[in-house]
């Protein structure tokens, strides 16, 4: 018999049941916060240029590499990849999250009172970052008006300056009706 413990359900032997963990993770109230924090934990702001730029640095944690993104829920089964075949490269989804989150943050630096909603995100993946490698995220405002904002986000290796990914993020910024 499983014991309820907040959002966690434990079996008799004390292990958290996968089903309960999946339900909790997919809950809309949790999912919208969980992944943002999971991705940006450890992000450091290095410089802010008011009205135009935000520069951050980040050491790629193993949790964001392909090595640890091995569990997939499919047809009621958990399928795990072979860790020996894993490359320990930063996962493309984690890079996309950085473009989204840091791109949204630079909208504030550009003077907008809101980050709005994404209209378009495009990303060119050019190289790979590896676990424990230091990267730099350079987000710059292309333009902001009363309804939209556009930014570019470049992610590069801090040691060499080699570009890992280049993103462009367009957001709808208009404030909703107060009716």
UniProtKB/TrEMBL annotation:
Hydrolase keyword on record: yes
InterPro entries found in the cross-reference section: ACOT13 (IPR039298), HotDog_dom_sf (IPR029069), PAAI_dom (IPR003736), Thioestr_dom (IPR006683)
One Gene Ontology MF term: hydrolase activity
Location of the Thioesterase domain: 90-163
Keyword set, alphabetical order: Hydrolase
Any one Pfam family match given in the protein's UniProt record, by short name: 4HBT
Family affiliation: Belongs to the thioesterase PaaI family.
PANTHER family given in the database record: THIOESTERASE DOMAIN-CONTAINING PROTEIN, THIOESTERASE SUPERFAMILY MEMBER-RELATED
Protein name: Thioesterase domain-containing protein
């Amino acid at each position: 018999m499983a014991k309820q413990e907040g959002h966690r359900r434990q079996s008799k032997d004390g292990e958290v049941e996968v089903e309960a963990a999946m339900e909790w993770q997919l809950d809309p109230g949790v999912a919208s916060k969980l992944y943002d924090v999971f991705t940006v934990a450890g992000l450091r702001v290095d410089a802010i240029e008011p009205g135009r730029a935000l520069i951050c640095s980040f050491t790629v944690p193993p949790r964001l590499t392909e090595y640890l993104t091995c569990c997939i829920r499919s047809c009621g089964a958990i399928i795990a990849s072979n860790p020996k075949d894993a490359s320990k490269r930063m996962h493309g989804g984690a890079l996309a999250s950085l473009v989204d989150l840091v791109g949204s943050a630079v909208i504030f630096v550009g003077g907008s009172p809101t980050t709005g909603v994404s209209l378009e995100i495009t990303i060119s993946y050019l190289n790979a970052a590896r676990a424990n490698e230091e990267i730099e995220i350079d987000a710059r405002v292309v333009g902001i008006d009363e309804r939209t904002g556009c930014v570019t986000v470049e992610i590069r290796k801090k040691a060499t300056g080699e570009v890992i990914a280049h993103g462009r993020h367009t957001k709808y910024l208009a404030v909703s009706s107060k009716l």
